[in-house]
Write a structure and sequence with these properties.
Arc Repressor Mutant, subunit A; mainly alpha; 2 domains; 208 residues; elongated; Tetracycline Repressor, domain 2; homotetramer; DNA-binding
DNA sequence: AATTAATCGAGACGGTACGTCTGGTCTTAGA
DNA sequence: TCTAAGACCAGACGTACCGTCTCGATTAATT
């Protein structure tokens, strides 16, 4: 049950036309289609409205901005795609998680969405907070794996979880955004090995 | 040798008014000022023109887009600020380099510029190539340090330089762009330690 | 029946905000005011938008060019001003019609509009067609008077109506545009006398 | 040696490079060519400069505006084309004169020039005066013919020469500018007949 | 069944900045 | 001192979307 960004009952209704689910789906589908066809910059609210046969005001009623719309479309597209892996080892969990993450390149829409959202977070301070939370939720999943590794004794108890997450996600985003080197799911395992070595290299570096 | 993005003599001149250096400086100064005051999204060509007391067409004559302008203003602002360090050890060089890099947070203009440029690279395919080259030049400086480390025997000769650069720059950009954790120059040393540990951890992970 | 160039219901509405009559009137009033103040060449769409407190896009939505706007403003200004005269004689009708026409000089806005529209018709081929039609409608009014004269037996049935209209309107426009001699309503009667003499002088001259 | 609007030596020269007659001719030729190809509106000083391989400033040095340039080019094109006819009768003179005038339609450049100049006279008050003088010179030629007719006794001595000129030129310009009816040299004779009838119809109509 | 209230599509509204264009001026190097 | 070249300031152009706002028409849940 993904993408609950617009709750079902925000105030005690006493009548009135109910929200059209058809419209909602049309909008998300149009967003996805346009993202794939022209990329994030070519995506406009007007374009989505036209494509979805929906009024602009209907879009603005349910989503407050273009990135909010994209974040919903992205969530719908990846729903139930990322079950938290549990392979029994940190290396296994992380590798599974990262491999799936790197697969983003196989889905133009996901790639455009991620790049566009990151761009928008730089340009729209209001969205930046939302984006930060969204990123935070992905980080939480990852730090959960690390915590299980600590419980198992695979990792020291004092590692800096935040720094670990940066070390894992940083290079991914950097490659995705700059595009100097293609992302390949096969790179995930090697990256995990490196990161684990770094984490075991000594005291947490962020705050000595 | 700063800010040569617009060379002084691109074709053999045979007459014609010479480019106004005053105009050029006014434009870059206005860009810097506006970046500091309102951030990248509030920066507009019209605003720069008005602030610099310059015609819009003069800006468009020398810079093909807003990010091209910002990249020049950034280069001017950081000119001669980053001499390539040479401390005798890889760790020392990298730490010096990264410490200076992390200082970006002390200069709002530099921070706004970096974030805005990365955003623009996602939105403007034409600029993306320019940006990639620009990023590449920074990476080259860094890999130069690593190569010297290899020469000195501090690092194995088969490490993946590209991956190393990703590992170093990735977390920096990730923090800069997401903003979940503040950047602090003091973190640089710890990060270098981690990265070097990762690089020594085994075979190059990217392409075995 | 004034100023219907932008009809109130051009296509069967099925929803949507209705056109703002206030905006329409503000625009036409601003056009008239600016015509009077600075003349046709100083009239700009931007100026009208600013004066009328209206978005430029609103103007472009309803008028495709500056002359189209002026033609509407002119029509509004002269609405119901020129009832077709019916005095019982050709000479009387024509004199009344021409006298009113010559009064254009008393209204700077009308004079500026006429001169500007004629100029624009030379410069903008697309508008030329519109202008020709507009001129045609004035000619039709005039030839209607002549036709009544033929019915009454005042004029021969074989006169060239087109040529007659040229003979009547030509000198008016020529004076208006060149400005070598001031237009005066009192000249109308004499001109009519001359023209009628010319028309009675013999066979239609244009195509024997 | 036509088109002396820009004399060869306007102030007592005291040395320096002499005016390039080649440049002058190139400019006028380019003006004529562009008038024929794209009409008056497509004619720009920049275009002329490019076509004539001449600097914009060179054009501005010798001609103060676009219409001044066109008026020179027109004069050059029609030089020695219009000898004042002397057939022995007013009707003959006028018909010869008008027939030649109506031939303008056979020369696109002349037609474009006339229409453009008239348009410009409406838009550029400074040029309007020049244009009025230019028009005046053509009127003088015509009134000269009428005066000879008075001398011969063909016309009454008290006819209004100015009005006569308006009656003759007005319909010509009106057709040329509006374009509702094609101009044809064969129409000249009939028009002359009509006008003479009008002039003989009675007292001068302009000022009773 | 009538009422009420929130939805829906449509599309006009005021705005802002865009990138282009032309005009007319000014400053060079070279003839 | 002129010429060609071309940069300069200025400002209107017409376009694209933005986010807001009226419309009339639906569509439930509540009376």
């Amino acid at each position: 049950m993904p993408a609950k960004s617009t709750g079902p009952a925000r105030h005690p209704r006493t009548g009135g036309r109910v929200r059209s689910d058809d419209a909602r789906e049309q909008v998300l589908a149009a967003t996805t289609a346009l993202l794939e066809e022209g990329g994030y910059p070519a995506l406009t609210i007007e374009g989505v409205a036209a494509r979805a046969q929906v009024a602009k005001s209907t879009i603005y009623r349910w989503w407050k901005s273009k990135p909010a719309l994209v974040i919903d479309a992205y969530a719908q597209a990846t729903a139930a795609r990322m079950p938290e892996p549990d392979t029994g080892t940190v290396a296994g969990d992380l590798t599974a998680f990262l491999t799936e993450l790197y697969r983003v390149v196989d889905y133009p829409m996901r790639m455009q969405a991620l790049r566009g959202l990151m761009a928008e977070a730089q340009l729209d301070p209001e969205f930046a907070a939302t984006f930060r939370d969204w990123i935070g939720s992905r980080r939480t999943v990852l730090t959960g794996m690390l915590l299980r590794g600590i419980d198992r004794g695979e990792l020291a108890g004092d590692i800096d979880l935040g720094y670990a997450a940066d070390l894992i996600f940083g290079p991914f985003w950097y490659r995705l955004l700059v595009g100097h080197t293609p992302l390949e799911p096969a790179q995930a395992a090697g990256h995990v090995t490196s990161v684990l070595a770094a984490l075991r290299s000594g005291r947490s570096p962020a705050r000595p």
